[in-house]
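Module 6 notes. Inverse folding takes a fixed backbone as the condition and produces residue identities as the prediction. Think of it as a translation problem where the source language is geometry and the target language is the twenty amino acids. Below is one complete input and output pair. Work through it position by position during the lab.
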């Protein structure tokens, strides 16, 4: 396995976090391997050659995609050229199915093996992508133990490797340190449009919260440093402690409540044992299409996994100042009971999704594949 050349493709911040851990583990075990990445700064800092910053292009929805379509085409053209010129031994696709399924098909046609880590949630969005993924990949490495059956029915080779958050999120004791000041933490997502929709509700909500819960710190986690200017411009008069994404777990210490945008971060908050309200708002057309395609009742990952509403959801037109304030008051006024429920949920989720070290498991599969 000397002289291996790998390409890793991600499209969002959570995928960049996972890729960076895989890159570090590969470099530790195989320092001579060359790794290129379509990703972000975390993967670059881990030691990969950054071919394109795809994390900054993360979108959700039709109109959001159209706004970045030209830049995605540039990434696609550059990716094809790089693959044809460098003939990598393996391509690893992580999440981002809109781009990565197309990339996987291109690699398959050229005889380049593909491993998928974090496959699209076909159990929530339907089975069409499962068939395509099964056809173009050598292995599909799943985060959830029940996912594999959706791919093996199409003769895909699926293997559960555990959920990365079981290793990334600290244990409950870290977040329950009584020396930390109580706070409400806002996590508005990694996309600019998500942030703007979030802030439209937060701007009038913050004064009401500050008046109702005097002495409670208000904090926000920035998924992108560039968001700081937007937040300070839209919320100039509100005392809000801002944390960088890399300090998000520190931000959650002492938190009594989180308002969290749909995505992986909802599972991080659940793992931390913190009560949360899950929110999301997109364009009306995007929402209508998504609602038709979604096979699940819920949007938030903790609710989907548990099959019940363990965290209230305010989605689209229900994400208003009045509804948010009512939901937050309901949790904070019954804080002890809600906290106990959140701790029990965290323990159950961690037990359900743990399976050794997921990043070590991914690298082991890569090694096994090339020992065959």
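Target side of the pair, the amino acids:
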């Amino acid at each position: 396995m000397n002289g291996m050349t790998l390409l890793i493709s991600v499209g969002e911040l959570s995928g960049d976090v996972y890729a960076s851990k895989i890159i570090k583990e590969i470099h530790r075990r195989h320092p001579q391997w060359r790794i290129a990445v379509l990703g972000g700064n975390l993967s670059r800092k881990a030691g990969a050659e950054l071919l394109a910053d795809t994390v900054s292009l993360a979108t959700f929805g039709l109109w959001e995609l159209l706004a970045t379509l030209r830049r995605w085409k540039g990434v696609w053209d550059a990716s094809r050229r790089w693959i044809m010129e460098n003939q990598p031994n393996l391509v690893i696709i992580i999440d981002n199915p809109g781009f990565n399924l197309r990339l996987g098909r291109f690699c398959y046609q050229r005889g380049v093996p593909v491993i998928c880590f974090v496959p699209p949630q076909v159990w929530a969005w339907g089975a069409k992508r499962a068939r395509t993924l099964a056809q173009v990949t050598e292995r599909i490495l799943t985060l959830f133990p029940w996912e594999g059956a959706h791919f093996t029915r199409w003769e895909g080779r699926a293997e559960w490797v555990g959920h990365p958050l079981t290793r990334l999120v600290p244990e409950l004791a870290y977040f329950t340190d009584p020396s930390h000041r109580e706070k409400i933490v806002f996590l508005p997502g990694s996309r600019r449009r998500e942030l703007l929709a979030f802030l439209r509700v937060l701007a009038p909500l913050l004064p009401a919260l500050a008046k109702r819960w005097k002495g409670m710190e208000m904090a926000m986690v920035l998924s992108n440093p560039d968001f700081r200017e937007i937040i300070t411009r839209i919320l100039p008069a509100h005392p809000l402690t801002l944390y960088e994404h890399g300090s998000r777990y520190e931000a959650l210490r002492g938190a009594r409540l989180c308002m969290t945008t749909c995505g992986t971060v909802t599972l991080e908050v659940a793992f931390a044992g913190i009560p949360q309200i899950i929110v999301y708002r997109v364009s009306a057309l995007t929402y209508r299409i998504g609602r038709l395609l979604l096979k699940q009742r819920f949007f938030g990952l903790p609710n989907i996994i548990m099959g019940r509403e363990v965290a209230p959801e305010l989605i689209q037109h229900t994400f208003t100042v009045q509804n948010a304030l009512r939901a937050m008051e309901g949790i904070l006024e019954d804080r002890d009971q809600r906290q106990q429920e959140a701790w029990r949920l965290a323990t159950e989720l961690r037990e359900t999704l743990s399976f050794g070290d997921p990043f070590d498991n991914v690298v082991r599969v890569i090694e096994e594949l090339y020992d065959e």
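Reference fact for the lab report: DSSP finds 18 helices and 13 strands in the chain.
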